[in-house]
Amino acid sequence: MDKRHKCPHCSGTFKNKKYLRPHLLTHTGVKAHSCSKCSKTFTQKGALGIHIRRVHQKIKTHKCTVCTLTFSSLNELKVHSGIHETNKRYKCTMCLESFVQKGALVKHINSIKHSGKGLYFNLAYKSVLQTRENLPIVLRATYSKSQVALTKC
């Protein structure tokens, strides 16, 4: 039977104490490992090593299978991969640009191009609206201002 070791501070579980001990440091705030190049500190030695490889040595091991670009983290590669997708569900109603991820649309809206225009992100239609009144009449009746139909960008 697989006995799990639980963190008393969060919902984390680990297969043995060897893995639980370094995790516990994340809750204490103690960062005993510091980078000699930029003095950034880390709770775990492994995190320091990753930082050095990515930031200072610029090692990029994650390769895009569609183009030739490489990235230092899997998350960066996943974000990049969106540019190769054809299903761009998040559309800007002001300039008609489309995006694979909601975060990219929000970043676009907050860019100099559209900043300060009091835009709203319509969760139902995954698009941007200038005012709540631009919502289709059906949605205006369905969602009150207190509900999460619109998020101020």
Describe the structure using short key phrases.
153 residues, alpha+beta, two-stranded antiparallel ribbon, 3-stranded antiparallel beta sheet, Double Stranded RNA Binding Domain
Structure notes:
This protein has 153 residues and is of the alpha+beta class. Among the domains are: 45-84, 2-Layer Sandwich (Double Stranded RNA Binding Domain), CATH 3.30.160.60; 90-152, no CATH class. The protein has five helices and eleven strands; from the N terminus they run ββαββαββαββαββαβ. It has helices at 17-28, 45-56, 74-81, 102-109, 137-142; strands at 5-6, 13-14, 33-34, 41-42, 62-63, 70-71, 90-91, 98-99, 120-122, 127-129, 150-152. The strands form five sheets. It has a three-stranded antiparallel β-sheet with strand order 10-9-11, with helices on one face. The chain has a two-stranded antiparallel sheet with strand order 1-2. Strand 7 and strand 8 form a beta hairpin. The longest helix is centred in the first third of the chain and has 12 residues, at 17-28. The termini are far apart.
